Amino acid sequence: SEREQFEKQQGWTIKKMTPVDKDEYNPDELEPSPIQQEYAPVIFAQDTGAHVISLDMLTGKEDRENVMRARELGKGVLTAPFELIKTNRLGVILTFAVYKRDLPSNATPEERIEATDGYLGG
User: Fold this and answer.
1) What's the average model confidence in pLDDT over 25-38?
2) For the chain, which has fewer Cβ within 10 Å, the N-terminal or C-terminal residue?
3) How many structural domains is the chain composed of?
4) Contact of 45 with 72, CB cutoff 8 Å
5) pTM of the full predicted structure?
6) Between β-strands 55-56 and 15-16, what pairing exists: parallel, antiparallel or unpaired?
């Protein structure tokens, strides 16, 4: 499957974003993301955020809503402040959709969804 090929290429399994206490967070113990039509795993992060690599952003409620809004609107979408994983700090994530091809400025949400190739967030 496409997922299996992707995971083999990355060298890790796509993980479900499961809320856990920051002191108990261990990415190696997280459950695999359930089988679904699409995934949005984190594939790159700075060293200070490397613990989020492999997390599927579509399995977290707020994260999923943020990703879906970004791809439908064609604009950057900012989350509300939330507690960052493994820290005592509040943070926000600004998410942008990346499209397979150029879209006209008046593209419909359906056209944007169809053309989505991935996401950038930070």
Assistant:
1) 87
2) N
3) 1
4) no
5) 0.73
6) parallel
